[in-house]
Amino acid sequence: MKRSESSILNIIKLKYIIMIKLKGELDYELTRLGLKVSDEIASHTTPGKVNGVVNFDVHHMGWIYSCSVWPDNYDVIKSEQ
Fold first, then answer.
1. How far apart are CA 5 and CA 15, in angstroms?
2. Has residue 11 got a pLDDT over 50?
3. Model's pTM, two decimal places?
4. What integer is the mean pLDDT of 32-56?
């Protein structure tokens, strides 16, 4: 990647927050943690290159749960800062 391309990517990162929006039929475990379709998750890993899985943490009743969703259950969205 050239230096100018890297600078452009940094500007894009400053302007937008990449988030995921949950969709489809969510696993039972996710719904028990209070997650529902159309919830937006801002803090997550980048989608896996092989399987597209995204990981994130959920705080529920004093506990932290590590969650994973498959590409069928999320859309990548951009939110302006």
1. 16
2. no
3. 0.71
4. 89
Q: Which of 13, 44, 60, 61 is nearest to 73 (CA)?
A: 44
Q: What is the pLDDT of residues 63-80, one digit of tens each?
A: 999 999 999 999 988 766
Complete DSSP assignment for 22-81: E-SS--HHHHHTT--TT-EE-S-PPPPTTT--EEEEEEETTEEEEEEE-GGGEEEEEEE-
Q: What angle do CA 5, 18, 15 make, to 5 degrees?
A: 60
- Other beta carbons less than 10 A from residue 49's beta carbon: 6
